[in-house]
Queue: 3 jobs
Job 1
Amino acid sequence: MTQTLSLDNLHVGEVGPVSLQVGPGEILCISGPSGSGKSRLLRAVADLEPHEGRVLLGDTPASDLSASDWRRRVMLIPSESRWWHDHVRDHCGPEQTEDLKALGFEPSVLDWPVSRLSSGEKQRLALYRALTLAPEALLLDEPTANLDGTNRDQVERWLLERIRESGRPTLWVAHDPEQIQRVASAHYRIHGHQLERV
Ligand SMILES: Nc1ncnc2c1ncn2[C@@H]1O[C@H](COP(=O)(O)OP(=O)(O)OP(=O)(O)O)[C@@H](O)[C@H]1O
């Protein structure tokens, strides 16, 4: 199911009002100085941060669902992922061998203990994990921040393909202007307390 993600008069901390829509398969990039409120904004969309205003997926406001149902549909992938089970497989939905390969892993990675993962491996597997859980919208907080150039390109291409083919509306926090140019359907920047279209 492909739906529009809408932010309606959202206020988070000192940032707002933010009203915008992300259509199916669109990637809306958010940039801004360190500490300007990008991560808090994503967390508010995931209903993990106190805020005013509304967030809707299609016609359904977040307030109509339990927090866990909303977060399963509108999934935040933070820049530093949390891992609460011992093994990678226990975190993931049904195995997607092609996706693992596209991200540079053999299927055996699913049997690895989380404790052996590097920060870049964690970041790539957090994206894999999220997509195996079939969310309807994605909130990506600097999804390639811990990756070298080759891995960044690989992950970026994979994300673009998956987002386009699945039609998931996506908010993507990014710093790199070249990456924004490559992936964004629209680009907004936090300037002072406002989110401005670039
Ligand atoms: N729960 C909170 N209550 C009050 N202030 C907070 C809270 N959480 C974060 N902040 C502050 O809000 C500001 C924005 O934080 P946020 O993590 O959203 O920044 P950011 O734009 O994502 O920065 P970076 O690019 O460095 O990751 C920071 O000054 C931070 O200290």
Job 2
Amino acid sequence: MSISAKTTALIVLMGVLLSLSAFVVQRSIVYPAFHEIEVDYARNNIDRVVRKLDTQRQAIDFTVYDWSAWNDTYSFIQSGDPEYIESNLYPDTFLNFGFDVALFLNLDGEVVWGSVYDFPSDGGIVDLTAAHLDDVVAATAKFTGRIDPEEDIDDQATSGVVQVAGIPVLFAMRPIVQSDGSGPHKGYVVFGQFLDDELITTLSEQIVQDFSIEPVPENTAPAAPDNYSLKIIDQSTLSASKIYSIEGIPTLRATAILPRNITELGRDITYYGIALLILLCIALATALLALFRWIVVKPIMSLRTDISSISSAMDYSLRASIKNNDEIGALSREFNSMLQMIESNNTELLRLNDELTSKHQTVLEVQSDLQAANAELKRLSEHDPLTGLSNRLALEKKLEQAWGILCRTGDPLTVMLVDIDLFKLYNDRYGHQAGDRTLKQVADILANAMKRKSDMAARYGGEEFLLVLPGTNAEDALSIAASIREQVIAANIEHDCSAIEPFLTISIGISSVVPHAGLTTGDLVRAADKALYTVKGSGRNNFRYEPVDTTGQ
Ligand SMILES: Nc1nc2c(ncn2[C@@H]2O[C@H](COP(=O)(O)OP(=O)(O)OP(=O)(O)O)[C@@H](O)[C@H]2O)c(=O)[nH]1
């Protein structure tokens, strides 16, 4: 796996791990934080709803306060004078003060005067007094017990919610006292509002928050300050509920349906954040890879190309290029140092090789000289120094060698003993040195007469020569002997004290045999010697053939 591939895998792995980490952090920290904000937001909103309901209750209570601490009301509750009602409590008064129920109760909780209206949104007035007055009186009269006349005038109040014809009525009640707040109180004033859909819609518009209400039984556990009920409806909405208590008594449950904008925002931020992070990782990985290729891979590939060129050319005088002053540059310098060392070693090796070659040449020359000397020694050991012909030692070897070969081939072996006639007289007449030159002259004639490579002319001793002719039969030998004799005569070497001719002559004894067991070279030479002896005895200057004596076998 290449460095690039490994680095790519590492960066991708890091990117994936980073994205996963970011995702986990987003899901476990950021997203819950948004959820917490949303919960706070929901609580604030449902708190606003409850506060709005309480504000509504307070508004009714303020109105009740005005009407209950008023001398006219104080007189009315005692006298029941209809003038008070006609002057003050016509339907528009209800509409202006924003309540639907008005009750004036005596100290026994019995209604002195009361009316119940409904004000639909089309501007009409529906008088519900006949239908619901008794219900309202029955529901509210029992609250008179909550009012303590001994309390300060400001605290002599109660309020609550009662159900009339299935509709909750928010009411406030105060005792009727004189305008200066003095008593004793003579009855109770009750004003109330239908918490119907129309009013709830109006309140919702005022606080810009839709909500609904439902009555709760009185024995419902009092709501703790943070007793909220939050319920996730679906991905985009949740419901927040809170019990609205009046004087510590649970009365209504207000519920608001809220959009989960914040959670959605958190989720979107999480997803967009992760997507952005992944894009950043990809961009960063791409940039890192490009940078890595530029800083690391490219110089390494360049160094590799240099190394490849140098090793294929085997030219260690070349150097890798150093492009950066970093670790790869240091590697290139180390490589160049190694090349320098190899080059130095090569130079030294070449010098040593030259020296070795020179010594080898010397050895070869010495060897050649030795071979020449050996050859010369061999030649000297096998040749006669005066005539240049083979000596007696070489002759013996030749005879034995030829005898062995011809024993197997069945061809004849011929020898000739050549002796210069009356050579003593020649020496005496012309001197020993002249005798030497003549010996050499005759030897040359004999050597030239040896036509085959296997023939040999040897100095047998003194002025006597032995010619060895393997494969030559007697007939051919006689012809050769005649030719040699004539050549010596033709040489016309003066020998004026010879009794034969006035020039030098020779005598030749010839013998030939097919070598075989029972005979030796000695037998053959002896036969030739016998022939020579016969020639010498019969006047010299001639040649003769003598067969080998095989009678002694
Ligand atoms: N100059 C010279 N003479 C040699 C050499 N070797 C032998 N001689 C002489 O050759 C002569 C041989 O003489 P002999 O054996 O008596 O025979 P010859 O005089 O040739 O008589 P025949 O052989 O019977 O014809 C001797 O005088 C030797 O000194 C040599 O190397 N150089």
Job 3
Amino acid sequence: MTTSLTLPSPAKLNLFLHIVGQRPDGYHELQTLFQFLDYGDELTFTLTPDQPGIRLAESMNGVADDDNLIIRAARMLADRATGPLPGVTIAIDKRLPMGGGLGGGSSNAATTLAGLNWLWQLNLSEDELAQIGLALGADVPVFVRGRAAFAEGVGEILTPANPPEDWFVVLKPDCEINTGKIFSQEGLTRDTPKITIRPAFEGDASRYRNDCEDVVRKLYPEVHQSLEWLSQFGPARLTGTGACIFGRFPTESAARSIWESKPSGITGFVAKGVNHSPLHQKLTELT
Ligand SMILES: C[C@@](CO)(OP(=O)(O)O)[C@H](O)COP(=O)(O)OP(=O)(O)OC[C@H]1O[C@@H](n2ccc(N)nc2=O)[C@H](O)[C@@H]1O
Ligand SMILES: Nc1ncnc2c1ncn2[C@@H]1O[C@H](COP(=O)(O)OP(=O)(O)O)[C@@H](O)[C@H]1O
């Protein structure tokens, strides 16, 4: 029996993000295009048959263990078990900035669902894992399914997509942005006309607009300045509700040369856009 498993927990980008309405419960209806990056966190799950329970090897800065999406996902999955389960210790190699719009927490939750489903041999289907994931956050299902996708609703209605697998410069301005704060701003655009999703939109940079960008630029001058700098080299966009921004380039060398010229003090990384999640690539190797 396998007792330890290390899995990637990749980042996502929202290549575009349109807010097309608001539901009676206040949640915003979106149309967005998700692509994964070949860059992210890594989680290691180690079964502890002599020690029952679910625990983190180390707590995450600023997140109580009970609130951590990894622990919450593991507990929800354990509730589906029909018999006793061995305990597990989960170690996190955290590379993705929190509150960055890269979906790190949601991705960690999806990697936990997939990893423990395998290690605990629960055999839940992808649909069941996506359903559990949606209760943890709107972005979790796309990470569970592992295919780049157009998303509608609050992000749970997914249509697989194949945007170009270009290279990205991702910059992290020096601020953390709370998603709820952006969605509660009065000046937010909430009435972008719905588009009919078509494959022709996948690589069409003119559609790569993010409706949160104007309010985020006003509230966070750091984001405004980073967008101004990166847009010298081509269109630069916000991912999710920020704070991270990205520029898209056809080659790794183009992306790296711009990355190397960035002003001092800006953090971030260069990564490739991928339409099949690195998590799923690894899971396929296991079966
Ligand atoms: C905006 C997106 C785009 O990918 O990503 P991030 O920037 O967080 O990565 C997501 O839809 C984020 O979805 P999710 O991860 O579930 O959002 P949460 O942080 O739980 O939402 C915090 C709060 O924002 C508001 N909210 C969130 C999503 C949404 N579609 N409409 C909303 O009005 C709600 O008030 C909610 O309580
Ligand atoms: N495992 C986790 N990794 C990151 N953030 C987490 C995790 N568990 C809970 N959170 C909470 O979720 C918030 C959003 O985190 P994250 O998913 O990284 O950013 P975003 O939603 O902007 O892409 C964090 O500020 C943190 O409070």
